[in-house]
User: Fold this.
Amino acid sequence: MSDLTTQPKSFGARLRWWRARRGLSQLDLAGAAGTSQRHLSFLESGRTAPSQAMVLGLAAALDLPLRQQNALLLAAGFAPVWRESDLTAPDLAQVNAALDHMLAQQEPFPAFVVDRRWNLLRANEGAARLTAFLTGAAPAPAPSNGVNLADALVSPAGLRPFIVNWEEVALYFLRGVQADAVADGMLETAALLKRLLAYPGIPALSQVPFQEEPPAPILAIHFRKGETSLRLFTTIATLGTPQDVTLQEIRIENFFAADEQTAGIIRGWAEGGRNAGSRDMSRNK
Assistant:
């Protein structure tokens, strides 16, 4: 029997691997997929070959991401159903416009678009201003440049020195990456988690932060550089009805001020930039 870290190649073994990963019995999965336990047993053992509809039904019952649904189809001898487009493809023009709209609407507060493994795809001006303030450099626009927000948060050479409550924030974030690795079954996501956990000073995922007082309704990231203190919380948005692998794996992270002081500072940065731009234009006339 295969372990729960490397997916086997055959359809039956891969199906059994996913069922074990989801913690389901044959009876549970058979009921959810609308088939019999006997038939499911034959599929897992390789005694029976599945139809395409059965593969997709089992994938839905297992709540597999589109990428893994395609992999299960290939293992069963079928062509992938779900396409994986480049984000710059003409067919995705409207989606790109929507992403740009969301980034613009979040101004002057930071917003980032990332993929499943937190590689940066694009960011708004608010994100550039925050990054420039903390590190002196704006985020690069594409993951080919090696910009990964998970590494930026966790690495001692990244944002860690500027986050007052870094351990608490890192613990919350790492548990999210761990949940992603369990959910998507991708070696790449497991490798990301392993890489993040290898950084020095990482808290154990089982650790429970000590709370002197009842926790706040939401965990804010407390940034501090010099005398400037910023408290921001985030929301994560995804596309609601993706039918493309690339689009299913996109996330939009929006930052919001957790207090009026932070809101004032961020709005002031934006206003200062606009005033500087106006002065430059005046000089050029």
Remarks:
- The chain has twelve helices and five strands.
- The CA atoms of residues 144 and 192 lie 16 Å apart.
- The first strand starts at residue 111 and ends at 114.
